Amino acid sequence: MKKEVSIIGAGLVGSLLSLFLSRRGYKISVFERRQDSRKTGAYQGRSINLALSDRGWLALEKAGIAQDIRNIATPMYGRMMHDSSGKLQYQAYGKANQAIYSVSRSGINMALMNLAEKEKDVQMHFNTRCDKISFDTLSLSLTNTESNTHFEHKAELIFGADGAFSATRLSKQLSTDRFEYKQYYINCDYKELYIPPGPDGAYLMDKNALHIWPRGHFMMIALPNADGSFTCTLFFPHEGPESFSEADKMGAKKFFEKHFPDAIPLMPTLEEDYTNNPVSSLVTVKCSPWTNKKNFALIGDAAHAIVPFFGQGMNCGFEDCYVLDNLIEKHLENWEDILPAYEQLRKPDADAIADLAIGNFYEMSDKVKDKQFLLQKKIEAWFSEKHPDLWIPAYSMVTFSPHIRYSDALKNGQRQQAIMDKLMAHPKIEEEWNSEATEAFLLAAVKAEKSGIGAS
Fold first, then answer.
1. Cα–Cα distance between 303 and 350 in angstroms, integer?
2. pLDDT tens-digit profile of 12-69?
3. CA nearest 71: which of 80, 60, 79?
4. Which residue, of 24, 187, 285, 319, has the greatest Cβ tally within 10 A?
5. 56-62: which pairs have CB atoms within 8 A and are 24 or more residues apart?
6. Does domain 185-281 have CATH number 3.30.9.30?
7. Helix, strand or coil, per DSSP, at residue 42
8. CA distance to 36, 64, 99, 278, per residue, from 42 (Å)
């Protein structure tokens, strides 16, 4: 007999996990505290478009649903930077035809729920809040929020997939001695805005790019949707100069005239959207342990919430599911071996991508407009093209190399940055960036680094 599994949370990771487990014969009950977003449009006004990259696609392919999701995804082959005068500068993400894919959070969540519910052993229960988990009896204390009725539900295996502010994580924390927990916010909040499609559904900007208006310690981004529109996200400090507080006082239109003038003609509902859409915070969560013997695990944001600036929150959660499914296969469904191995593998990688994501905020908001930074990226792409076995740019390790663990990408990226810092200090690097001398320097530096000598 297969185990009865309870999954708390019907978001992206909970829905995909239910699909993976049901296809292995498990009977799944998914409990979601919110209303069914397919009926209510619950994400309206408080979403960030998501970027699917190779790690996420790998999980979707293993689950057999990649083509279903490709139907609602738009490829983005690079960043399009908008300076304060409206001048554009394009930077490819990787090699030719390498792309990340824009999907709306609500769109992909609804698609995953629909696909999961097609499985005969998946039952989803909405408006059902998890109040507490009794780990001794594996009993869930639940509340139907529509009728305000309380009930108990027992399972043999429980997954907490209920997001950054997880109730299941809190139950784990309260019941576990020496539970380690760290939560911290960056000095930046976000607000969703909107660029509608043009006549006949035409895109008003390049549809195959992620658009960025970098302004130092703040920025706006825009990702394409399948209907010709763009979902924009404004990332600002909460208070102080050049912040949401200042924009509120000045008025959205005047603030945009000052900082994002080329966007104003594209956003006819700017003032309405700015007024009506909420400001939301950005949190990083690190915790341990994630698992409990052989019958409980945190997964996705419940285990490792990260900020969105590397576009890896969803991809990391999907990779959790992919790794877990591989371990089920490897350990022949012995959960006493599966869950410890899952945490041992994923915890270092989750911590690494959390740190990488914070670092990428400063890259996106500030460095992408710096000539030296753009030159470094050009040199790395050139050298990697000539020596792909020796050098993979840090962004490509995270985004296009699912066989490289996040933790290894972080360490490799730090080593490569130390080499690039020395190269970029050369006085004639702008003229000689693709010269034989530059290639020789990098080859020697990589060889020295690998031998433990260090670059010079």
1. 8
2. 999 999 999 999 999 999 999 999 988 886 555 456 789 999 999 999 999 999 999 9
3. 60
4. 319
5. 56/314, 56/315, 56/318, 56/319, 57/101, 58/318, 58/319, 58/322, 58/402, 59/16, 59/318, 59/319, 59/321, 59/322, 60/16, 60/318, 62/20, 62/322, 62/325
6. yes
7. coil
8. 8, 27, 29, 13
